[in-house]
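Q: What changes when NAP is included in the input?
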Amino acid sequence: MPNDNSSENEAIAILGGTGDQGLGLALRFAKAGRRVVIGSRKPERAEDAAKEVLAAVPGADVVGLGNDGAAAAAEIVILSVPFEHSASTVKGIRDQLGPGKVLVSMAVPLAAAIGDGAVRTLGIWQGSCAELLASIVPEGVEVVSAFQNVSAHRLQHLDEDVECDVIVSGAKAPRERVMALCPLIPGLRAVNGGPLANARIVEEITALLIGLNIRYKTPEGLGIRLTGLPGGE
Ligand SMILES: NC(=O)c1ccc[n+]([C@@H]2O[C@H](COP(=O)([O-])OP(=O)(O)OC[C@H]3O[C@@H](n4cnc5c(N)ncnc54)[C@H](OP(=O)(O)O)[C@@H]3O)[C@@H](O)[C@H]2O)c1
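A: The predicted holo structure follows.
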């Protein structure tokens, strides 16, 4: 699949796009007309996920590849694997991450990774999952933090708007590239979250949301909305 650097047409790779969150993003970006490359450890699982997207979005521009092939095929690479497998997955595709690529960190270091609950997070030496990934990507690759507070369930229900603000953090130019993806999904609004270190706060919000989902019995997943933003709704 050729790379297309014009930002409106550039492919979006989703590693681990066979899971709930990645598949939800794949469905939504495909529905918005974007080229989507689903990655998996097993290419046949990615192909099956691509077929699922095609069934839901006829005519979608979507393919399934191994994680390495998917990372090579796109300039924006969303990492959609559980936190505990994030660093090893990135190390496995390092050779496909060239300068100028943007790696989107979406994982939340939930304490469930060590057998504790999903309503708490783990302390990460670098500060957050996003900063951990930034410490291991090759030079010239930008890490941007986004989409941690968006519910997979809501992403997968294509008939309904998702209704969530997406706090996007990282260096200015790559951050703006990722912010531009948010309005492709009805109900998502991008919020400039400043430097990557703010991912520490955004990742924590997801643990809070999971607890709220339990207390309020909202399995479809709550979202977040900021009020009073200039130009906001
Ligand atoms: N679910 C949500 O509502 C939600 C909301 C916000 C953020 N997130 C974040 O989004 C990410 C994905 O969430 P999810 O619910 O989609 O996760 P998931 O379904 O548990 O896993 C996603 C994919 O990760 C891959 N994977 C599993 N074990 C792996 C391993 N040992 N090494 C490498 N890859 C492995 C699998 O893909 P293959 O087997 O095909 O390789 C799997 O389909 C997580 O980091 C999560 O924190 C999720």
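Observations recorded in class: The pocket of NAP is lined by residues 16, 18-22, 40-42, 45, 80-83, 85, 89, 106-108, 148, 150-152, 206, 221 (CB under 6 Å).
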